[in-house]
Design a protein that fits this description.
This protein is an alpha/beta fold. It has six helices and seven strands; from the N terminus they run βαβαββαββαβαα.
Length: 202
């Protein structure tokens, strides 16, 4: 893969196949490439959501680093949890219905792990950014109508907050709404600055 190069910093790579993360990162106006990492995303036994996303964000970055030893690599992973249970991507309509019935009227925590790894120097920056969604009480008819319109079957929690999914919520609680979509840009901008990349410097 041909990556953007710069005389001022190593190539920037997003270790993800997510179109949502690519769209978010493109908002910063900096050149980057993207590579889908080969990482087993299965949780370990008794692993907390926070530890899971931190481990996977780092694993994704390191997996890409094996073939790109002179790059800045962004790894990220996200899980949703309600009542102590992790909600994965529903994949099917029926599972999405079940998830939204389970979360209706409840506060759901989305934990997003973020890693910026300099594969040349070995410097690793890692954090977990929480974001909370309080769902409205939802009728099954509303859930079915929403899913038929937006089909968010590849999204943790069975919704797209940047789309019609906003209609499902009572309120949002968190420091960076981008974290809910999958990439905490505020924290990432600070990490990039630590590596000498000032987004506003042009």
């Amino acid at each position: 893969m041909s990556l953007p190069t710069s005389s001022q910093h190593p190539p920037l790579i997003l270790a993800s196949s997510s179109p949502f993360r690519r769209e978010l990162l493109s908002r910063l106006g900096i050149e980057f490439g993207s590579i889908s990492p080969a990482v087993d995303e299965s949780p370990l036994q008794a692993e907390s959501p926070e530890k899971l996303v931190l481990r996977l964000a780092e694993s994704k970055a390191r997996a890409v680093a094996e073939s790109h030893p002179d790059a800045l690599i962004i790894g990220s992973d996200q899980v949703a949890a309600v009542d102590g249970s992790i909600l994965g991507k529903p994949e099917t309509h029926q599972r999405a219905v079940e998830q939204l019935l389970q979360t209706a009227g409840k506060r759901v925590t989305f934990s997003t792990g973020l890693c910026l790894y300099n594969s040349k120097t070995g410097r690793l920056q890692l954090c977990c950014e929480p974001f909370h969604v309080v769902f409205r009480q939802l009728e099954r008819r509303e859930i079915e109508n929403y899913l038929n319109k937006e089909k968010p079957y590849n999204c943790a929690g069975s919704f797209k907050s940047e789309g019609l999914g906003i209609c499902l919520f009572e309120r949002l609680e968190g420091e960076d709404p981008n974290a809910l979509i999958g990439l905490p840009l505020i924290r990432l901008i600070g990490m990039l600055r630590n590596e000498g990349i000032d987004v506003l410097a042009g």
